[in-house]
Each structure stands twice: as C-alpha cells, then as structure tokens.
Amino acid sequence: MRWRRDGKDFQQPRARNLNGHPPKRDTIMPLDATGKISLAHVYTAPDPREYFSTLGQLDYQIPQLAKPYFENLLLRYREASGSPSPTVLDVGCSYGVNAALLKFDLSLAELYDHYGAAASDPRERSDLLDRDRALAATRRAPAGPHIVGLDSSAPALAYATAAGFLDGAVHADLEKDDPDATQRTVLSAAEIVISTGCIGYVTNRTITRLVQATDGRMPWMAHFVLRMFPFEAISASLADLGYKTVRLDRLFRQRRFASQEEQHVVLDTLSDIGIDPTTAEGRGWLYAELFVSRPPAGAARYLADLGSAAVPVRACSASDAGSV
After folding, report:
1. Average pLDDT over residues 167-178
2. Cα 90 from Cα 177, distance rounded (Å)
C-alpha cells in the first residue's frame, strides 16, 4: 500500500502478527481524539482475552521491551533505599500486564500464548481466574516488587487484582479529580512509578497529583511515551517539584499501525510537532521513548550510569511548557 507525503511516495510494509500471519483488519476501528485507533472496548471486558487477541494482531510489544529497564530501575532503587520489595505504581495498568512480567518472570509472548489458548474457550471468567491464580502461584519471582495499579477501568482492575497480578488497585481518573482519602493512602506508598502507554491520555495533572499524594516521598519514575505525545509539560511539572529527567536516545516499538488512516494521522501529528517520522513511524510502527525522572538526591550518579544514551531534558517552568 502506498501513500504520498510532501511530494514523496512511501510504501507501507506488509504487517505480520506474532504468529507470522497478516493481522485481521476487516473490522474498521474508529480513531480516538488523539488520532490513534480507539481500543477502549478491550480495556473494559470482564477478562483479558479480547485485550490480548486484539493487541496481539498488532504486534503490541512495549511491555516486553520495557521490562529490562524497569528491572534495572528496581535494582538501583533497592541498592539506594535498602527496600527489598519496593512498591511500584503502574499508571494505566489495565489487566496488570507489566505486573505479570515483573512479578512472575513471564514474557509477553507467554501471556499471548496463555490467553490465546483461551480465546475461543467458552469457560467462565471464574475458571480463567483459577488458571491465572495457579500461574501466579507457580511463577512468582523471589523478592518480587509489590505492584499497585492505577486505571480508570474498573473491570480491568478487578480482574488483575483477583488474578493476583496486582497487589492493590486504585480506580480513579486523576485527570478530573484529586484522589480521595482512601486512594491517597494507597498512592502514598508508591516508591517507583511506571507507565507503558498511558501518557497522552493522562497529562501532568495526573503525574503531579501522584507526587503530591506521596507527601514528599518523590518516587522514582520511568515512562515509555509515544513520540506523538510531547513530554515537555510533564517534565516541566516534575522539574518544578525538584526532579531531574533524562530521555534515552533510542526508540522502542510499541505496535504496528492498525490502518492506513491511523498512520496518516500520526505522521501528520509528528510532523506538526517537528519530528521527522520517515525512518520510524513511516515504516509502519508506532514508536515510544523512555523518560526517567529521579529526585535530586543521588540522581546525578544514577543518570550518569545510563551512559551516553541519556539525554538531559531541559528544565523549564510548567507554564512555559504549556501545562494544562
């Protein structure tokens, strides 16, 4: 499939899903307000089967690529704090995918196989939960982190918690409201905050409220952010709170585009914010970057350990960065 942009012809690569077959694209998915396809329906099902079926066809892979970076951050935090099992807050956790990868030493491919085998199975949710609890019991890594999920989807949180993937959950939309007293108590325990796709749907409003809920703890942070969503407003808000932020100078594949329309819109968005997508998104994939934020104590040494791949993010005020 070809499209024309700025006087040049581009060829869209032929997509393959995780089983090596072309993704099923006979169902037209509408675009959401960001310009990406709307996947809201896969986050509100009573169990994760549709989530894995849909995202597997798009070669969704960012949780697996993020895993070693999160593990490294956990290692460094343990060394710095002495905390053997830090509390991790996963923002936009959905069904607890990051938790499953970090707590049970699972791979994303194993989860695709695990739920793919159950995709056409008429078994009840309770039967699937029993199978997932057994998986969690046999694969839990020693001294794994304590993981709390934050999400606006009650069904996803309920499943991830019942399956044992999440150790706690906060059902809230911090873009709209401050956390209530109960939610604030849970959030206050966060020592590390991670995300793999929610930035763009959540802004510096949510991130600032999370930091404020910890009452001065200043949790370490690692966010994988699609290039189409500028991170400046969040990094500026974090700088105002005392954080230092770096961006790793490499790209991470998130998933394939679901349609030519989605790709066109994302390419236009990237061009509008001054990013050339030709050699990345122009080849058929959405790409993310990793931003790591640390409180000032010990930050210089840790960020230096990331090496030449770490690019400091210029600190400016939240108002200058266009916070909302």
Report:
1. 97
2. 18
